[in-house]
Design brief:
The protein is mostly helical. It has helices spanning about 10-25, 30-35, 45-55, 65-75, 80-95, 100-115, 135-155, 155-160, 180-190, 200-210, 215-245, 250-295, 320-390.
Length: about 400
């Protein structure tokens, strides 16, 4: 009888110990030394690498500590390489479930492992840069992944590695050459993320690709449309021949009646427009007269030409209205300025009075406080003297 524990208590305990040892260590070398002392059973390497990746993903920002730790395990023993490669495939396929912060940390983690050659570049075969095979989250993953590689290696070294003949079978998905549509998508994607220099060979292949022609399809559609149009035209011509003889007399009578009605309607519309113009002109004249009546004496003729403003007045009274208007304006201005000055003086007086009142209130409050303190001191002195006399007695 073999007892199988399906509660996974041992797995939970293992994860707890791995997490605590990672968090309690100062650097990656100490963490690797402690984890190697645990003497993991065969098959638990996957849990160790998964736990390191989970700890890295939960951080607010990427820490190089976790990349160096995973690199150390992959360099020590090759049995840790396969779990890392399987984790890369799993994380890329399920990256749409990750948040942006976790997605960034995971992509930088794997970029570190590739840059240090801790895992093989064959994991690139899982990436296919096409419009149908990518999502928004996977494009973000690829963007951060390649930008991190270019920062570590430099664009020239990265381009040399991607052009390696022995690894071309793994890079077919990165630079697809099956159709022009996929090639254009890959070129546009890498140029937008600032790595257009990686697509030089793909651009040359795109130029040499034959352009797809759609002429036979267009010819078939044109033939079908011509057949349908010919059938429609024949049916229309038959119907027009049958109805042409009966409609000649009716059309002549209808045209004569329509011409008479159109001429009468146009004449009536012209008369209405003329009446409206006359009424509008009369209204404008009446409004101007009323405005001149309502204005003061000095402003009644404002807006007229200079030669006609004082027309009809005696010589001595032509500029009388202007003088009176100017005097009234000066009076109004003087009154306004005097009112403003008086208001300012009143405000200054009120401010001075309020300040004086505040000062008096402060002095009174201070005197009251001093009196209260003196009284308290007198009471305390009396109490002390009474206590001393009581003790002496």
């Amino acid at each position: 009888m073999e007892i199988i524990d399906q509660t996974e208590t041992n797995l939970v305990a293992l994860r707890r110990t791995i997490y605590l040892t990672i968090q309690s260590s100062l650097d990656f070398e100490e963490a690797a030394h402690k984890l190697l002392k645990m003497e993991l059973k065969p098959g638990q390497e996957n849990e160790l690498m998964a736990m390191i990746l989970d700890c890295c993903a939960q951080m607010r920002t990427y820490e190089k500590f976790f990349g160096l730790l995973a690199q150390r395990f992959c360099m020590i023993d090759k049995k840790y390489v396969a779990p890392c490669e399987s984790l890369f495939q799993e994380q890329y396929e399920t990256c749409h479930r990750l948040e942006t912060n976790k997605l960034r940390n995971v992509s930088r983690f794997f970029a570190h492992l590739l840059f240090t050659d801790a895992i093989s570049w064959g994991v690139m075969q899982y990436i296919k840069v096409t419009e149908d095979d990518t999502t928004s989250s996977s494009r973000i993953f690829i963007k951060i992944f390649f930008q991190e590689l270019s920062e570590f290696m430099g664009l020239s070294k990265l381009n040399e590695r991607l052009k390696d003949v022995t690894l071309q079978e793994f890079f077919d998905g990165l630079f697809p050459k099956d159709t022009a549509r996929n090639a254009r998508f890959a070129i546009n994607f890498f140029t937008t993320i600032g790595l257009g220099g990686l697509t030089d060979d793909l651009r040359e292949t795109l130029k040499s690709m034959p352009k797809t022609t759609q002429q036979p399809v267009k010819e078939e559609t044109a033939e079908s449309s011509s057949d349908s149009s010919s059938s429609d035209s024949s049916s229309d011509s038959d119907s027009s021949d049958s109805s042409g003889s009966g409609s000649g007399s009716d059309s002549s009578s209808d045209s004569s009646s329509s011409s008479g009605s159109s001429s009468s309607s146009s004449s009536s519309e012209d008369e209405k427009k003329k009446r409206k113009k006359r009424t509008n002109e009369k209204l404008k004249v009446n409004r101007k007269d009323q405005q001149n009546k309502d204005r003061p004496e000095g402003q009644q003729n404002k807006g007229r030409p200079e030669g006609q403003q004082n027309k009809g007045r005696p010589e001595g009274q032509q500029n009388k209205g202007r003088q009176e208007g100017g005097q009234s304006r000066n009076r109004d201005r003087n009154d306004v300025t005097s009112e403003r000055k008086s208001r300012r003086d009143d405000r200054g007086n009120t401010r001075e009075q309020s300040e004086k009142r505040n000062r008096l209130d402060d002095r009174q409050s201070r005197n009251e406080r001093m009196d209260a303190r003196d009284r308290d001191n007198d009471r305390r002195g009396r109490d002390r003297t009474e206590r001393e006399e009581g003790r002496r007695r």
